[in-house]
Amino acid sequence: MLRLVTSTQDSRPNLPAPAAMVRPEDEAARAGLEATRLAAVERYGVLDTAPELAFDRITALTADLFQAPVAIIGFIGSDRVFFKSHHGTSETEARRGTDPSHSVLEPWIRDNYKHGFHAGVPLDSPDGYAIGTLSVIDRRPRRIDEQYMRRLRALAGVVTDELAMRLAARRALVQADIMKTEVDHRVMNSLQFVSSLLQLQSRNGASTEAREQLLAAAHRVRAIARTHRVFSADETRDRLPIVAHLRQLCDELAGILDAEIGVEGAPETSVPKDQVLAIGLIVNELAANARKHGAGRRIVVSFGLSEGEHELAVTDEGLGLPAGFSTTGPAGHGLGMKVVRALTAQLKGRLSTRPPPAGRGTCVAVSFPAV
């Protein structure tokens, strides 16, 4: 039977096992070992994080097993022990002991439980560094046997297994992120390559109409590539600032169409991420039509929100629409308008035309519910 009074059951030093072979006077080596140990702690990302049920269950079970009021899972920082789980106490950290022959909790235990009982086992990383401790504490002196210490070490193993699974999951996410970035890069390169091929083919078209259709297809593919790039840059967000995206898209589109394209709208306006591609392609089609049929080079793209609806409008400086024009009539049966109608339906919106505010040119608008 072992009697434990404000000391750890495990007699190993606070520093990792290699530190035992370092001469006391070799401070540089000790500092290097401590820096490596701290790096091991940081890999797990647990310091100063919120309580979690998985760890709270372990401290509750530990306290119940030992019939003690306090159990702690602590992770050892440079000058303190952070209590990731603290059953039976409201304190969340303790000053760390500096003497490697004592428990890392020694100052805290001495101040709060100086005549009591403390049993603790280290939480070791796979490479042998002491990153934390699982401790059980009582105000009363007590005796425990080796069977109970085996159980405490087994519970500490559950903690380190949980940490290992989390670290593996984090590494898998990083690897998946690297793979996704590589896939995104290849997709964008492939789309740009297809666009370039279509542009080259348009120069050798048998007719003017064929050349124009191939060039329009090249622009559509390039618009998809541009939107895909935005997705890749903002992949963690559910909503995107659509006006900023439209400005970026129209800056590139202006060079392709040899036009001046202005974008109007509140910078803070955002839309769900899954709507951005449809909006970008609609602007691409309507801007291309405006440049083709408008009399001037100036095109205005506006995006606004009113009474629960977004409105996307593209305005040119042309002579206006011919009499009797309808987006669903014969004049609206071109491929570009078919694409716009399909994308408008995808947004659950409606397509309309009207005279622009200045009274000259054409304004094509798509209104759809704001979600």
Would you write up a description of this structure?
The protein is 45% helix and 22% strand. The strands form four sheets. A five-stranded antiparallel β-sheet has the order 4-3-2-6-5, with helices on both faces. Strands 9-11-12-14-13 form a five-stranded mixed β-sheet. A hairpin with a 5-residue loop joins strand 3 and strand 4 (93-95). Helix 5 packs antiparallel against helix 6 (242-257), helix 5 (208-233) packs antiparallel against helix 7 and helix 7 runs antiparallel to helix 8 (335-346). With 371 residues, it is of the alpha+beta class. It folds into two domains: 2-144, Beta-Lactamase (2-Layer Sandwich), CATH 3.30.450; 238-371, Histidine kinase-like ATPase, C-terminal domain (Heat Shock Protein 90). The protein has eight helices and 14 strands. The protein has helices at 27-44, 53-66, 106-112, 146-202, 208-233, 242-257, 276-293, 335-346; strands at 2-4, 70-76, 80-87, 93-95, 117-124, 130-138, 142-144, 239-241, 260-264, 270-272, 298-306, 309-315, 350-354, 363-369.
